[in-house]
Structure formats: C-alpha cells, structure tokens
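Internal tracking record. Fields below are filled automatically when a chain is submitted to the structure queue. Please do not edit lines marked as system-generated. If the sequence contains nonstandard residues, flag them in the REMARKS field before resubmitting.
Queue: standard
Priority: normal
Entity type: single polypeptide chain
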Amino acid sequence: MTVTKKLYRAFLTFASGLCLTSCFHSVAYHQYADVDVWNWSDADTLTFVLPRTVSSGELMPTVGVRTTSSFPYKVLHLKLVMSCDDEVLTTDTVYVVVYDSNGQPLGTGFPYITTLKSLQPVYVDSGRIYTFCINHMMGEESVKGVTKVGIELDVP
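SYSTEM-GENERATED OUTPUT FOLLOWS
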C-alpha cells in the first residue's frame, strides 16, 4: 500500500471519528411530563427527580415546552423549584417565549411545537438526589394548549 493511500485511510478514519463524537453531547438527564392539554391547573406540579449523582459538577439545564396551536399566549410563565434531598435550593421564574411579536412560533415541530429555554448552570454534588418541580404561573387557574413540559440537564 502506498504512503498516499495510508494517509488517505488515516484521514478518513480520523474524520469519521471526529464526526461521530461531535454528533453527541453528554446528557445527564432528559425527561418530559404529560400535561392535560385542555386544563393544566396551576396546582398541578410536574416533578422531575434526577437519579443519585455519581460525580460532582456543573450541569446546564434547559426547560422544554410542547404546545398546540390552541396555546393562547406568547409567553408561558413557569415557576421552577430546585431541591436537594428535600431542601429547597432555588426558586426561579422562567419565561418561555412561545410566539414572536408577529405570532410566529419560535419552536420547532409538527403537530406540537417544542420551545426550549436555556437556564443558568447548576452545581450538583455526588451522592445527592436533586428534584426539579415546575408549575405554571399564568394568573389563571388553568391553561390550555400545553401538552408536555420537560427538563434536560447537559454536562458542559
């Protein structure tokens, strides 16, 4: 085999490996919870329990919202509570902008539109159990047009 062919094969092997590894990111947790599409009550708490962590470090959270065309607002107001071993660490208000000022969806997908909102990094300690609770804060008792709400925690 000539040197040129060996270099070409080595380059192809390297390029293939690079493409495969760049297609993946490390996801520590990813879960969606179903919501009553016609009656998501402000009393309905969506709870996401991160399995006991095996290592300490920073995680990058993202909240995802899936809506139908019947969602009547531009922005969904959420309350996010992060707890560790049943002790509340933070409570935050998250604004997920679903439609722009022209009424066009900012998310993607059909028939449901998935809109993502990145949040500030969170730090987790190994051996602890972390819980994320989400409620809507829309000023009305119930909201229609939301099918699922979820959270993803990525390792940077």
